[in-house]
User: Fold these one by one.
Assistant:
Number 1:
Amino acid sequence: MNDNNQLFELISKMYGEMQEGFGKIRTEMQDGFKEVNERLDRVENRVTIMEQDHGKKLDLLFDGYKQNAEILERIETEVSKHEEVIIRRVK
């Protein structure tokens, strides 16, 4: 009977130590997850800012492209007018 009590106490002690260890691991993991989530939130916020910033820059680039195309069309129209005058004079 004495051996059974000692064995039971040993097992109970080991179980308690294991539960304490698991509790520490659980706490560390929760803290780690919290830190990872906070860092992920910061990254997501930064990416959102970058997307907005790049979107504005792309809009400006497209506006510039459109303005250049319009200017080229006007130049082409004027050159065509002068071309017609030159061709008439040569004939």
Note: The mean pLDDT is 91.
Number 2:
Amino acid sequence: MVSVIGELDLFTCPRLREVLDGLAARKRAVVLELPAVKFMDSTGLNLLVQATREARRDGWSFAVGRDLSEAVSRLFDLASMHEHLPFDDAS
């Protein structure tokens, strides 16, 4: 599990990208937990879409936890992300 706290935006996405790249290189399963994210912009959405594509292409497991902050849930609803991202069935 990778828990994100605070903001997921242009300034913070590079750090999360590094973490995900490291886990992907080792084929580690990732569940991204977002209940403590207070703000996410289009950069954050793009990162999640890219991670989903890369995981499918490269054969590693990536999913988003179902427990979302209100801000993230609203953004996912507006962008119809619930239809495009894999969600973890265990969360």
Note: The chain is about 45% helix and 25% strand.
Number 3:
Amino acid sequence: MLPFTKMHGCANDYVVVAAYEGELAARFAGAAADQIEPLARRLCDRRTGVGADGFVVVVRETRPDSPARFEMRMHNPDGSYSPMCGNALRCVAKHLIDSGAAPGDEVVVRTGGTIAPMLATRRDAAGRVAQIEADLGPPVLDAAAIPCRLPTSGTGRVLDAPLAVGGREFRASAVSMGNPHCVLFVDEPADDALVHGFGPQIERHGAFPERTNTEFVYCRTRTRLVQRTWERGAGETHACGSGACAVAVAGVLTGRTERRVTIELLGGALSLHWREADSHVLMTGPAVEVFRGEVD
């Protein structure tokens, strides 16, 4: 039997497996991504599995030069590996701190190429972590590194570039937070027709050779935004933490927002701060344990 914890951050939900000690550590430590894919697909299925937007395995960090103690490995419902997931990171931080695996209020976790220091900023009446601030580091803005093939602004960045999809032209900005994002600012809050009609097409558009997450964003003010996200490998989710970080960066670079913003998502709100001093993006939001269980 495989013990797991069902968790969510702003209704972006995950099946989390703590594989950093005991028999589970031996089972998962050396597991390749293609070995985990079938398990991720089965457990994320909302009809025949546990049901989730992602399958998360937490293992001990093995890189000797890494400041992180733990590594997060996240797979989408279609089984594909994702090197970054902001909401999952907060859930992992809560799990590690609440369980005592990470003593105190701080923990550093690696996911893909990102080292994420995280801090518990609020606890509930029972002393359990309720809110986490995660430092996702600086954004990647070079088009070739994202990767994105849309026209650049002359600095190698894709900002408000024309993107023609399904007979409609959008203005797209490309940002990577360890995973690629296509940020589209729209004139009114996105509806289902916009997200579900264009999200799948943009995900697999030729301009994004590794597929992309797509954010449809409406600016209520310069400090409050509304976001819906179509995630690669998952479809629309109720929240996307790394996507919110990408939106905060794109908003500043295109002159639409301040460096501190609140972003409203279907599942709740996240606070973002693109810090000017070091270019790091800080994301603060809830992390919730739903239930624990075992699966065969």
Note: Residues 174 and 182 are 5 Å apart (CA to CA).
Number 4:
Amino acid sequence: MTTSHFLADGAEIVLVGTGATWSEGPLWIADRGVVRWSDIPGNRILEVDPTTNVVSVHRDDVEFSNGRTLDLEGRVVQCSHGRRAVERETADGVEVLIDSFEGRRLNSPNDVVVASDGAIWFTDPPYGILQAHEGHLGDPEYGGCHVFRLDADGTLTPAITDFDEPNGLAFSPDESELYVSDTSAALRNGAGNHHIVAFRPAGDGTWRRDRIVYEVPDGHPDGLRVDVEGRIWTSGGAGVRVLTPVGAVLAHIPVPETVGNLCFGGPDGRTLFIAATTSIYRIETMTTDAAAASRKGR
């Protein structure tokens, strides 16, 4: 592993908890001091306390939840393959925020972020309707795989439509760029894309493709995060890469299992938690998440 000023001195990958089938959607829940994540094929949401490494089941029969984030009020917003929806957790379960576009069902929302204005952005690839172990087999209905923006008034806008299979997404610190990963190669025997693309506003509510940031050479880019200094932390194969906004590799952090997603958390926000196949791992850093800093600044 390449050492750098954004990793803590002596930082090493540490196993936090295990027992999942395929781990995705990690999120630090500060008031509980736990990492919550999805075991998609297991159809359950798990939590682990990184101080004790004790894993518990948060909820069962969750309709194949995937990525999650916090809204500006600190509520958990998550993607549901099974419901083909974006939903928000409540004390009694979940409430569906959106599950259709122009009268047609969404594909299977995958990952989600909340912008500083409170809008919910999410990707909508087809994985939950193509794989029975990650959702319910079904047909795509609106004719694409878009990146959507859901405003507080319920307006749903297809912000990015010229993309193959969008997966992970994250804003630059000033939200002038949106980074989106394409994992279309995952179900096509390597024939699709395996890159991260940067988008910029087009001025009409849509976002235009600006550049390919990075081609993952040994896997598929999936979940990603951006730190307060603009570095991109992305999954891809058996490891995490740290990139500049133009795709220079600053570090490669090997992980014992294939990585699906990641998040920052811990008491000071500097621990990187990594969802990798059956487990959650952590590594100590010297930076924090840009989106979390934006929420604190409001």
Note: The radius of gyration is 17 Å.
